[in-house]
Amino acid sequence: MKLIDTVRIWDAAAHNAFSDLIRYRERWLCAFREGETHLSADGALRIIVSEDGRHWSSLARIASPDADLRDPKLSVTPDGQLMLLAAACRYDLPGGTYRSLTWFSDDGRRWGEPHAVGDPDFWLWRVIWHQGSAYGFGYDCREYGLVRLYGSDDGKRFAPIVDCPFGTGFPNESSLAFADDIAHCLLRRDGEPSTGLWGTSRPPYATWAWQDIGVRIGGPQLLRLPDGRFVAAVRLHDGRIRTALCSIDPATAELTELLALPSGGDTSYPGLVFHEDRLWISYYSSHEEKTAIYLSRVEVGRRDACRT
């Protein structure tokens, strides 16, 4: 894979971070959090739009008077609506309280009222739509050590499918991808151990097998290419912290770095879209003078060209 170019697409706020990217009705939409700092209590969600991926303008801003809104994720529902998923964090309550929310829109500019989804203090990180249903793991923000798979038919009500408890480490951020009906999950862990996990499950997704990938990751975004390869955009910590594009072998759970993106310091939380034989990757980074949102385009070689 070859890096074509990288452009900074937004830096208006003091801290611009935690991005996601989608192509919707022939336009690019990027969502991210704006705030004073990485953990400030004033987080709001900004959505920007572009026709060509180079020239961007603000489309919408969503804020809460009493909560920090964090980590927006974009998807398209089976009936063609945009769905925005994010977490609302109330730091003024003892221990903090977390609630996952969804909003819906027909154009990305006008959004309806939020729907509280999942369970309180379970952070529903990212969802993917598969055969008319949405699936995603939420992680326990109070007790740690537990992720819970949720499913939904409309994005407004998510029901638990299965709990996956882990005896060690702190499992949290995740991303799902499907190969036919087989679900795969790339899962971040912190603490001891701090290496990520690769999960696999078959319908009805009530039983999961997990493998240790042996690499510490952050902000995972997983995508299966049309030729069957799995790619992931993650933060890597081995030596220099960076946002990188990686491949992952679904059988062995081996993660291989393919390309380091221009990044460093406070960085990661990518959005990943395959469009016209290229990967488009949104992410944030602080390797320049401030924390800003970037967009990279990557040329994807043919699968058979990678064989030796």
Set down the secondary structure blueprint:
Layout: E1 2-10, E2 15-24, E3 27-35, E4 44-50, E5 56-62, E6 68-76, E7 82-90, E8 97-105, E9 115-117, E10 122-124, E11 128-130, E12 133-140, E13 146-152, E14 159-165, E15 170-179, E16 182-190, E17 197-201, E18 209-212, E19 217-224, E20 230-236, E21 242-248, E22 255-260, E23 268-275, E24 278-285, E25 292-299
Structural account:
- The chain is an all-beta fold and 308 residues long.
- It has a single domain, classed as Neuraminidase (6 Propeller), CATH 2.120.10.
- It has no helices and 25 strands.
- It has strands spanning 2-10, 15-24, 27-35, 44-50, 56-62, 68-76, 82-90, 97-105, 115-117, 122-124, 128-130, 133-140, 146-152, 159-165, 170-179, 182-190, 197-201, 209-212, 217-224, 230-236, 242-248, 255-260, 268-275, 278-285, 292-299.
- Strands 10, 11, 12, 13 and 14 form a five-stranded antiparallel sheet that branches.
- A hairpin with a 5-residue loop joins strand 20 and strand 21 (242-248).
- The mean pLDDT is 95.
Question: How much is the radius of gyration in Å?
Answer: 18 Å
Based on CA inertia axes, which overall geometry fits? globular
Q: What is the CATH-assigned architecture? A: 6 Propeller
Catalogue the unreliable spans: none
What proportion of the residues is helical, as a percent range?
under 10%
Distance between the termini: 15 Å
- Hey, roughly how much beta strand do the residues contain? over 45%
